[in-house]
Amino acid sequence: MGTQNQSQLPLIDFTSENLKPGTDTWVSSCQLVRSALEDHGCFLAFYDKVDSEIYNSVYSAMEKLFDLSTETKGKKTTEKPIFSYAPPRSEVPLYESVGIMNPLNIEDCQKFTYIMWPEGNDHFCESVNSYAKQLVELDHIAKRMLFESYGLERKKFESSLESADYVLRGYKYKIPQVGESNLGVIPHSDKTFFTILNQKVEGLEAKLKDGEWFEVGVSPSLYLVMAGDAMKVWSNDRIPACEHRVFINSKIERYSMGLLSYAGKIMEPPEELVDEEHPLRYKPFDHYGYLHFFITEEAIKSASPIKAYCGI
Questions:
Q1: pTM attached to this predicted model
Q2: Residue 42, strand partner residues
């Protein structure tokens, strides 16, 4: 069900038929989720509910998306900050990514698709929508486990889901040329509430609480579930945002997929997570306000942008 020591992340099995609310397996898994997030800001999930055909289809669709011209990929697809195309930059020349806002809604998938392919692309649209719908169940289960482990009311969990916004993000990494660094992405934490990552090719590493870097394996059923900056706020600093990075060591281009969740309404730590040992450390948090702030000079110069934005 789960293992943990100083040199590895817990691997939590989300496939068991016994994983039902109220069962011993459920309760112990809830505690594993919470302890892993509090220790490392992340955990590994074994999750086989994504159909293999859909899994292969969405990666194939993403390859076709990245094959489009830079001009096409750079077209505006949303008013939300940092959710569209991220081209290669001087500090990360191997990396590019594309975000699809609200992939759970077929109409929003169609809107994105028609911007990229005015003639239409049913395969892309249906692949993205189907994959997101199957993967979001892992997001929901993990969040429910976390809320229950803290003894929070069911309505607070349901309210969190109702207000959540999702982005499906595809990532591509080129093969480094001779003499070129193999650094894919510098160490960083995401600005999300939750990020769920799967990789088709190895390279992803997560930083553990002891400072060691853990290499994440490759499997259609293996996902790295990470806390982002927003969860750090929500948990009142009980849970750190997971620091992670990517190195390109393969001889083929690297693709990975991420389902990112954001808080769609003003958020603050639940009163149950504020006590003498954990006094209130954050003001009410506007997630989209933070995304706008994050790209400012003040945030870039700050050692902790999230503290600079809403810390007390």
A1: 0.95
A2: 226
